[in-house]
Amino acid sequence: MYNQFKSISLSHRNATLAIREQLALNEAEAKSMMLRLKDFFDVSDVLVVSTCNRTEIYYSASTDLNEEIIKMLLIQKGVSDLESFKAYFERFSKGENAVQHLFQVATGLQSQVVGDMQIPNQIKHAYQWSADLNMAGPFLHRLLHTIFFANKRVAQETFFRDGAASISYAAVELLEGLMPNPKVLIVGLGEIGADVCRNLAQKATTEVTIVNRSRDKSDKLADELGFRVADFSDIEAEISRADIIVSSIVRDEPFFSKEMMVRLRGMSFKYFIDLSVPRSVSPEVEEIPGVMLYTIDSIRSKADEALHRRLDAVPHVREIIDEAVLEFNDWSKEMIVSPTIQKLKGALEQIRKEELTRFTKNLSDSELEKVERITTSMMQKILKLPVLQLKAACKRGEAETLIDVLNDLFNLEKQSEKH
């Protein structure tokens, strides 16, 4: 099973946001994709991961289906230019590479912002989708639980998840500390603005309104996140209504000016968080009583400090991953001999039962119970050494030789056919 595990990956490393948006899958689409894979191919242990930064499909199959699965995904998403889109994908055709990649993705080593705190939950959601469709077998169950345990170690033993290492997340951390349950207005839905919205979506107590010059873009994001939308033409009314205004609009000169704030006199206390370069909020707005401004420089400084701490922790995170992968590899190798162990147990149990039937006809119930206990104990002791030797052979990479010997010695293939 280990050698059959494979994956395809489209991520921020090779594709722009515009490309990633076209191929992102929501829960319904991800489940539909998994069911189609099951209908068209002989696959198991299917996991579909889709975030704003990546769309990935993991699966187990005896043959390499990466090209077919990429084609199926592109067709499902309505892409007509298949050949040009194929170039954006990474392919992992060896089990060890696919497993290592999933570990790195799930811990945040492959994230656009190193140590992304959302990725463990996103992987858990993907795992739940697989479980819902009965497409997570013993291999995937064990792999994901090993990853979750490694993630717990990363959180407890390193600084890899400390602080807000992205501008958007640092902005959200800042506004959370300004006041309880604020009304937040997001102006501008470029990459940073959209990221702020997605981070805010995790905060159930925050009321968010989004405004963008393109209403289509704001409507689409609002549908995804459950936010309120307002027209750009109503921007001044929305400023009056909001407690915190987060701006990431692109302009040559500030959009939010002192004159605008004077025009909106009678406002309550306001906070501006300016994430634009060049600045979209004039520094002069702070001359208005009750208005405070935070610029991208102060937020970036906080994010950079957190990012340095995370980068310093990367070697320790890699050590944790290597230990977890090694443990999982040992388990996977033992899975190879599990059928042989079960056949051997079955063959010996059949011999035990047949012999008991022959020689215990005249025994009383108490005598029969004693014989059952004795023979069962003998069988377990006989099995112990072959099982230990099989598991040791797995670690040495010599399991196949011992499997053949046991099959010949106990005629296991015939025994399994017979019973």
Write the layout of secondary structure elements.
Layout lengths: L4 E7 L5 H7 L3 H14 L3 E7 L3 E7 L5 H11 L5 H5 L3 E3 L2 H13 L11 H14 L5 H20 L9 H12 L4 E5 L3 H10 L6 E5 L3 H11 L2 E3 L4 H7 L2 E4 L10 H6 L6 E5 L16 E5 H64 L5 H32 L2 H12 L1 H7 L1
Parallel strand pairs: 5-6, 5-8, 6-7, 8-9, 9-10
Antiparallel strand pairs: 1-3, 1-4, 2-3
Helix pairs in contact: 5-7, 5-13, 7-13, 8-9, 8-13, 13-14, 13-15, 13-16, 14-15
Q: Taking all residues together, what is the mean pLDDT?
A: 87
Helix content: 55-70%
User: Rough shape?
Assistant: elongated
Strand order of the largest sheet: 7-6-5-8-9-10
The biggest sheet, with number of strands, parallel, antiparallel or mixed sense and barrel status, is: 6 strands, parallel
Q: Count of helices?
A: 16
Low-pLDDT segments, ≥5 res: none
Order of helices and strands: EHHEEHHEHHHHEHEHEHEHEEHHHH
Structural class: alpha/beta
- Proportion of beta-strand residues: 5-15%
What is the CA-based Rg, rounded?
Answer: 30 Å
- Please tally the β strands and state the result: 10
User: Terminal Cα separation, in Å?
Assistant: 25 Å
Keywords: NADP, Oxidoreductase, Porphyrin biosynthesis
Active site: 52
Catalytic activity: (S)-4-amino-5-oxopentanoate + tRNA(Glu) + NADP(+) = L-glutamyl-tRNA(Glu) + NADPH + H(+)
Domain Glutamyl-tRNA reductase N-terminal: 8-158
